[in-house]
Amino acid sequence: MKLGLLTFNMAKEWDLDTIFEKVPALGFAGVELRTQREHAHGVEPDVPDDELAAIRDRFEQTGVAIAGLSSSCSYDSPDPEVLRANIDATKRHLDMCALLGAGGVKVYGNVFHDDVPREQTIAQLTTSLAECAAHGADVGAKVRFEMHGQFNTPELCLQVLSEADPAGIGLIFNCNPIDVVEGSVEPTWNAVRERVIHVHLHDLADPQFPYDELVRLLVRDGFDGWATGELPESTDADRVLRYFVALWDAYVALAEAANLEG
């Protein structure tokens, strides 16, 4: 299990040099790059392949891993042109992942539209994901479907993934408030854990979400993917991120001790 930082929004103003300096110094193993938001890192779909190869070399030389690409791609739009643009953008991101050694790209469901039957949106989503997953398999990169927006319940996410691609698409566990059932995240985690390949963390000190329990579950199940912090902007980012890493490390230590005892 590896801890990374998502550049949305805490590090959106960090260029690559800043990422190479701050990410390891603050205790993170890597960074998940948010794209299509004009972040300072500049790793975007319009970057030529030779420049992406050079960027990969820089990451490898510094020892900072690329935990993935986090795109804005979604497949709910009733407009065929918008939908096709999102599918094509996903394929470009998957190509980028292969070139960068980034592993996978985050995509959404995203919402249901009032004037479109729910079943139609689900069918459109599964068809789109299947096309993207096939491209990902060809180039060696993974589609990561985030539990996000109105596609955030285990039942709906598992339906979409099973219909689109029974094995290839991974799930991003997004630590949503809806995941907490009577104070526990375990029922939701248990429902989706076999498909989860990535986790998005938020405020680890949030009393409304049992992050300590989640980490115990991750350790219990031998989760070996990335958990990346998605945090709001701060005027004292370094200090906040040090606390974030320290709290994560404490949760992991307690979970590992409990796992050994149990």
Topology:
Blueprint: E1 2-6, H1 16-25, E2 30-34, H2 49-62, E3 65-70, H3 80-100, E4 104-107, H4 118-139, E5 142-146, H5 154-164, E6 170-173, H6 186-192, E7 196-201, H7 211-220, E8 226-229, H8 237-261
Parallel strand pairs: 1-2, 1-8, 2-3, 3-4, 4-5, 5-6, 6-7, 7-8
Helix pairs in contact: 3-4, 4-5, 7-8
Question: Your description of this structure?
Answer:
With about 260 residues, this protein is an alpha/beta fold. The protein has a single domain (about 1-260), classed as Alpha-Beta Barrel (TIM Barrel), CATH 3.20.20. Helix content is about 45%, strand content about 15%. It contains 8 helices and 8 strands, in the order E-H-E-H-E-H-E-H-E-H-E-H-E-H-E-H. The protein has an 8-stranded parallel barrel with strand order 1-2-3-4-5-6-7-8, surrounded by 4 helices. Helix 1 (about 15-25) links the parallel strand 1 (about 1-5) and strand 2 (about 30-35). The longest helix is centred in the C-terminal third of the chain and has 25 residues, at about 235-260. The two termini are about 20 Å apart. About 40% of the residues are buried.
Give me a quick take on this structure.
This protein has 262 residues and is α/β, with parallel strands linked by helices.
Any descriptors?
262 residues, alpha/beta, 8-stranded parallel beta barrel, 8 strands, globular
